[in-house]
Amino acid sequence: MSEILARVEHRDDIALIVVDNPPVNALSQAVREGLNRAVVEIAADESVKGAVLVCAGRTFIAGADIKEFGKGPLEPSLPDTIATMETLQKPIVAALHGTALGGGLEVALGCHYRVIDRGGQVGLPEVTLGIIPGAGGTQRLPRLTGIEQAIELITSGKRIGAEKALAFGIADKVVDGDLTAAAIAFLKEKLSAGEAVVPVSARPVGKVDQTRIGEQIAKVTKKARGQLSPVKAAESVANTATLSFADGMARERAIFEELVASDQSKALRYAFFAERAVSKVPGLEDAEAKEVRTVGIVGAGTMGSGIAVAFADAGMRVIMSEMSGEAADAGRDRIDRIYADQVQRGRLTEDMTAERQMRITIAVGLEALAGADLVVEAVFEDLDVKKDLFARLDGILAPGAVLATNTSYLDIDAIAAATSRPDSVCGMHFFSPANVMKLLEVVRAAKTDDRTVKTALDLARRIGKVAVLSGVCDGFIGNRIWAAWRKQAEFLVEDGAYPEDIDAAVTAFGFPMGPFAVYDLSGLDIAWAQRKRHAATRDPAARYVEIPDRICELGRFGRKTGAGWYDYSGGGAPAPDPSIRQMIEAHRDEKGIVPQHFTAEDIQRRMRATMVNEGANILAEKIAHRPLDVDMVMLFGYGYPRWRGGPMFEADLVGLPQILEDVREMCAAGGHGFAPSPLLVELAESGKSFADWAEDK
Ligand code: 3H9
């Protein structure tokens, strides 16, 4: 028998049920058992008039224990526990602080009243784990908020603050100061008023507008882009309009059971833990990070400005360096625009932005960075420029200060070699817009020491990024995989698919955008210039698709010029362009290529196989250390659908023999320069998965 993690304490005629299961009071079997026992004890104790449910530590219950999912039922179940709480003929007040989430909020909804600390938050984030609330959340919440609001809250999985919880009817009172004392006082008021003890499940569902609910479900379905849980959650909430509480609960349970066993939920649970595991790099446990108080940034262009905002948003002092007063002014304008945009979107108030802007200083020349603990370089992508800059920074910064480059593909070993402190040089590769995108690749060069890596990882965590450790190679983890896929996408165009077919297949897979729409958005000219620079050194035997060059030769550089792979003359959305179609067809004729037909599934299989194959190479070369590192890069930097877990996780689910077959089919179809990854072949042929490989290491 495990330890019981909910105890009963007494305050005169009030019982306190105290849940104490650090770190987040997850509803493990021992907590559920404790809650059941507490209710039985309180029911039997005639001296107790009512109870307050409160949690020890930093938060109210943050939900079911996700680690228990998939391990078979452990009695008592959460729905039964909450049902037992509702049978109590004495009122229970839930006292919420921190984050009352998922099963935690469901427990609170099983109480008769809820008081919430002003800083508290509530939410039902189950859909983000591929499930629906499975302990009455979809049946009780609408009885407090109305169906429409419940659909909105449950399908978005978003948390709301105390004031909103009060306004929506979820909380009965917002309190400041001593939460337990306030909850007891609230309960005493209710007891002395002699209010009837009515459980939430016995309350009526308010006015129902079936047409509006139908529209809401349709909207949720569209937004979910293939993810099942939000749609099922909306349907379960909608059941409250037509089913009794008991029947609604039975339906909710059935949907929960079905979803918890689904691949989507497995993938989302994997992503939840991988997101937390990714920055805990094995081998670095004992490394000491350098304390970083002041960050320096070289270059106040788009990237540098975004990076500065990311640090300032986290409360850090930032000194930026530019080459001239003019460039510094332009940088200040960029930062002002970023903040003005945040205000316009309602994310920040004017006061908040003013405070953050004050944290950023922009100076001319490098000397202003002398006191920085860590400097991020975000200048033009040119190896000689960066080497020169690092040599100069090395002479200015204090010994021990960390030098990081934001390069996307240049050789960091070469950059580090220009300094006298290669052990303190690393890559910090942000993704644009740097203040928004969650991914940060921390790149360890040959001589980077543990302290430097730990410093960069810790800093990333402080600014709310998902940091993934990568080794040095062209493109690191993300851009290397993306480049491999981009090449295959171009082969597909040459072989018979059109950009719009590929983009449609990719968005149907769950990506927010297809590759050709992405190129047009980011601009085609930079990659074109790069191709021209590399033309002389390109392997003449490697397959090369000239279509992107032809498009650029027409001055079509993407959305910013009104045309690229698509036409944007109508404003808004990318429109397929007949002249591009003709160009593609003429190009195929010229090369003697007979176009084939590719279904959306063919395209999706090729995309996934390409990513997995390159991911396997990256693992074998120790550029990424764990499959989850590759997955987190693709999830947070490239929009790989979270409900698929990432390419490596999904490959294990699909089965590596199938992935290998897809890779071989692509090689046979003519992808010169593309070969099955030896690691993929080895694992597929020995019946192993990437997860097995990670475990064996
Ligand atoms: C649910 O409730 C289903 C029910 O409807 C129905 C059931 C029948 N379980 O995030 P942190 C671990 S589904 C197990 O770094 P923070 C986490 O892995 C659940 N473990 O802290 C980490 O471990 P480690 C619905 C959990 O302060 C440690 O706790 N609820 C759980 O940044 C600290 O976590 C949710 O989806 C859990 N539920 O954020 C809420 N939660 O130290 C999920 C956390 O080994 N949790 N851990 O890496 C969160 O969103 C955040 O953890 C929270 C705290 C906001 C609470």
From TrEMBL:
Pathway as given in its UniProt record: Lipid metabolism; fatty acid beta-oxidation
InterPro entries named in the record: 3-OHacyl-CoA_DH_NAD-bd, 3HC_DH_C, 6-PGluconate_DH-like_C_sf, ClpP/crotonase-like_dom_sf, Enoyl-CoA_hyd/isom_CS, Enoyl-CoA_hydra/iso, NAD(P)-bd_dom_sf
Catalytic activity entry: a (3S)-3-hydroxyacyl-CoA + NAD(+) = a 3-oxoacyl-CoA + NADH + H(+)
Pfam families with a match to the protein in the record: 3HCDH (PF00725), 3HCDH_N (PF02737), ECH_1 (PF00378)
Domain of life (superkingdom): Bacteria
Primary site of residence: other
GO molecular function, one term: (3S)-3-hydroxyacyl-CoA dehydrogenase (NAD+) activity
Localisation per UniProt entry: Peroxisome
Residue ranges constituting the 3-hydroxyacyl-CoA dehydrogenase C-terminal domain according to the UniProt record: 475-568, 605-688
Broad EC category: oxidoreductase
Alphabetical UniProt keywords: Fatty acid metabolism, Isomerase, Lipid degradation, Lipid metabolism, Lyase, Multifunctional enzyme, NAD, Oxidoreductase, Peroxisome
CDD domains hit by this protein: crotonase-like
Segments forming domain 3-hydroxyacyl-CoA dehydrogenase NAD binding: 294-469
The enzyme's E.C. designation: 1.1.1.35
Family: In the N-terminal section; belongs to the enoyl-CoA hydratase/isomerase family. Belongs to the enoyl-CoA hydratase/isomerase family.
Name used for this protein in its record: 3-hydroxyacyl-CoA dehydrogenase
Organism: Rhodobium gokarnense
